[in-house]
């Protein structure tokens, strides 16, 4: 049985850009991963586990997105 990935944060140490990813299944979509920072173009993207508040905010944004 597939197990969903745990939420994680992609963050650029150069400009502090970040994206919280909360996968809905065991697969990532192309929009869930970046190779290069959209803010400054750096390729040194760090990945870390998401904190509870970050997950809550990301889920709220996902819930709002279809309504906008």
TrEMBL record:
<protein>
    <submittedName>
        <fullName>Uncharacterized protein</fullName>
    </submittedName>
</protein>
